[in-house]
Amino acid sequence: MNQSAAVDAVFLALSNPTRRKVLERLSVGPATVSELAARFDMQLPSFVQHLSVLEESRLVRSTKEGRVRTYEIAPKRLKVAEDWLTTRRQSWESRLDRFDQYVKQLKEKESGS
């Protein structure tokens, strides 16, 4: 998965409140599908679809032991979103710093100093 596709997949996964709540729960520790699903008022197939989106984005990974599938968070993939946001934030901070400097220069020019 290239970087752009990874960013798209991560933000798609994070765009849904159910999936964000699953990630919040998994940040505490691994959980089985039934443990995760118990917190949500939806049919299991719909819930499993959310888990699939999270797994396809590689924000979570699962293991299966017998009939029990357990999910855990894959924190490395969250760095994709963090890096993307950091780059955007740095760009805007740089622009705002230049704008601030420009306004200061205009004020100094108006005051004659």
Automatic annotation (TrEMBL):
Residue ranges that the Swiss-Prot or TrEMBL entry lists as coiled coil: none
SUPFAM superfamilies, per database record: Winged helix' DNA-binding domain (SSF46785)
Name of this protein: HTH arsR-type domain-containing protein
UniProt domain HTH arsR-type: residue ranges: 1-95
Upper classification of the organism: Bacteria, Pseudomonadati, Pseudomonadota, Betaproteobacteria, Nitrosomonadales
GO function terms (MF aspect): DNA-binding transcription factor activity
PANTHER family assigned to the protein according to its UniProt record, in alphabetical order: SLL0088 PROTEIN, TRANSCRIPTIONAL REGULATORY PROTEIN
